[in-house]
Design a protein that fits this description.
about 55 residues, rod-shaped
Length: about 55
């Protein structure tokens, strides 16, 4: 098992790359969800403002 994790001496680079990629994917997902929520709130405010004006 240790040899497999070490990957011929390149384990740190390989597993580090997987870790950084996973971290970026998680952060990107969180940012997209937050942006969507903000956008929907802003759209809701705009729709309410338009309905009050008419």
């Amino acid at each position: 098992m240790a040899e497999w994790l070490a990957m011929g001496g390149h384990g740190f680079y390989i597993w580090g790359s997987y870790g950084v990629t996973a971290l970026f994917m998680i952060v990107e997902t969180i940012l997209v969800i937050r942006h969507k929520r903000t956008l929907l709130q802003r759209l809701g405010r705009m729709m309410r403002m338009n309905s009050e004006v008419e």
